[in-house]
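Blinded run. Sample ID left blank on purpose so nobody reads anything into the name before looking at the predicted structure. Input follows.
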Amino acid sequence: MDRVQREIDKVKDFAHTEFRSITPVRTGNARRNTRRTQAGVEAGYNYANRLNKGHSKQAPDGMTKPTVEAIQAFVRRI
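Blinded prediction complete.
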């Protein structure tokens, strides 16, 4: 059971790193307020939904969809 939990934690860490890396940067607020929680990743800023819907040239596909795709590829590798 401990091994399974470690693998789940690896996926959560990967998801957080990936989500944060594709979060657009203007002032740094969005990246600074993206946190890894027990459940996964939390975007703790009031315009997260706008960014996630592609309202940024830096992340036209948002952050969730590309992160989910990256997680799927990561899980297939492990």
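Unblinding after everyone has recorded impressions. Strands lie at 34-36, 41-43.
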